[in-house]
Amino acid sequence: MDIFARIISIILPVFSVILIGFGYAHWRGETVRADMAAVNRVCMEVLAPLLVFSALASKDFDLAHNRWLILASVLISLGSAVLAWPLASFLGYDKRTFVPPMMYNNSGNMGLPLTVLAFGPESLSAAVALFTAATFVYFSFGVRLLQHGHQQHRGATLFALFKSPIMVAMILGVLFALLHLPLPRPLYAAMKLLGDASIPVMLFVLGIRLIDIRFKSWGIGLVGAIACPVVGLIMACLLDQFLPLTVAQRGQMYLFSALPPAVLCFMVAEQYRQEPDKVASIVLMGNLAALFFVPLGLWLGLPAAMH
Prior knowledge:
78% of the residues lie in helices and 0% in strands.
């Protein structure tokens, strides 16, 4: 299959599900928000944690084998923040508004299905490792940056992070991977079945979430939409020079680095009242720009992985 045809076959199903969610939200209007609140809660508290745990606790997942890929996720997230910081200073943006979305991309509800379609079902556990490492970095450092100047939130979010179901699932999954603890096959099958359901649900919910985001503050939105994947790809190119990644891991790293800002960044900015309209614009325009940058990331990562 031609490389460009392969890229189209990878991104089309993902963006189609997002578009269906967006269309459903327009059709149902205001009532969909109340309906999706329950769906989102189930996804974040049950389905996604089971996806993380079942992937990390899988007998096919080798923590030592994926250690360099996990390190790449951490360094891309932190490095993107370092590169975005002077850009925010130069353009006069509030760093608490601009930097966090640059360091936390949509590696969950967009990155997971893209990775599976691009590199096969066996890549899911490594993609989950990328996602959980990036989530940890965001809540450890990105939210800490947001907390600066918000005294009433100091310390609360980091503590809440370790109580959240998805982080509990990550910690337990890592322990099972390190200790090679076995799970009864029927129990593991049930957990994986529920966990796998989170992927299309997260894409659908992403489409619905986008209806709440407007093009207000389009200037910072356009800059952020370009800066997020560009700084990520710069970091990936630098890491590619010295990290001993396998061919498949290299492809996953480039795809991960090209993803747009996560919708969660908007939700957290709204929680902290940190210019949520500007963060919303970054997220919306970033997800639109993904139609260009995701194929670019796949083009950089797929050629070697296809041989």
